[in-house]
Amino acid sequence: MERIKMTTPLVEMDGDEMTRILWKMIKDDLILPFVDLKSEYYDLGLEHRNETNDQVTVDASNATKKYGVAVKCATITPNAARMTEYNLKEMWKSPNGTIRAMLDGTVFRAPIVVKGIEPNVRTWKKPITIARHAYGDVYKATEMKIPAAGKVELVYTKEDGTEERALIHNFTGAGVVQGQHNVCASIESFARSCFEYALSTKQDLWFSSKDTISKSYDHTFKDIFQEIFDAEYKEKFDACGIEYFYTLIDDAVARVMKSEGGFIWACKNYDGDVMSDMISSAFGSLAMMTSVLVSPHGYFEYEAAHGTVQRHYYKHLKGEKTSTNSVATIFAWSGALRKRGELDELPELVKFADDLEKACLGTIESGIMTGDLARITTIKNPKTVDSEGFIKAIRKTLEENL
Ligand code: NAP
Ligand code: MG
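Above: inputs. Below: predicted complex with magnesium ion.
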């Protein structure tokens, strides 16, 4: 069989532990036999990050800026235990944090929907994608305990030294206060990333906050989204046949529960944190969640939503069988290959990405799955396979379908 040709390299970021093992299997069994893979390889495994003083993460991000599309394996974010385990020179920062800061992006997480793994909400037929703003609000807040009566104010000191004040509360007894902030540049990036992603996936975009109560803070988010939409995206959305609307968060929650899914829900930082856990657990499993970082400049970085599955890796090192689900990592590859195919106008590559995803879903629907899914499936008598067996089964389905 002639392998599918690529024209522009994909930025490939390898990672750690069990997902690094899966990465190689996926490439060898599911990608390389079918695609004449053009990739620029960066080893973000912790050992190599340590050897390069983390320069490799910066290089990989710069390559993503150059080529536009990257696929990333899960990586260890070092903590004290990892410092000893890997004999690290420094407690290197989270690679995802470094990449996000360099590409200035928003993370979109969507469940992979498959028959046999049923969402807990009966009406949900299609995935619901959460777009979470990843800067500011309560995550960068300053807080104070107020021990006794007294006045608390907000003070803004301008560069010329003059002040503007607003009373928070005249305390008559003990209490608490909190000061939050956000910056317009970050909100603008967030809005553009959401509009770009809605266009690229042809899904409606919802944005919700509490502007009726928070008349300056949340209202600014609402206004920035609307201004950017009207000025830059309205015509593109019309042409694409998709819709953008803003609604109050209470209304959004009610609508989400009654919806069929199939849209993007943009959330402020706290709302996105809470709602993404609700959506992912209601859809079934973290191992069936895709994650893509979309930059407002049009760069895309695809990965799995889960980590390096350390517990399974230690079993693997002891020579024991593991049953680790590779679907989210395979979908990171298919997502990146599809995007590369769309940008380079390679319909065969786009079709291969579709076929690969169908083979994953088809394999699960035929009753062959890893342990995490076998525990929750509605399919009778599922066949639980090990990590390698699952990838081999997907290969077989893929070949039968091609
Ligand atoms: P994790 O790797 O997501 O795994 C947590 C648990 O979830 C696993 O022990 C396993 O449960 C289950 N699980 C996750 N993915 C699975 C899969 N594909 N198949 C089957 N089960 C799966 O989180 P963690 O153990 O807390 O973190 C491990 C390392 O990953 C850390 O060093 C962390 O820094 C890193 N991390 C990286 C990323 C990223 O690169 N995007 C994200 C999160 C965490 P059972 O053990 O019950 O089977
Ligand atoms: Mg959380």
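The domain at 118-139+184-283 is CATH 3.90.190 (Protein-Tyrosine Phosphatase; Chain A).
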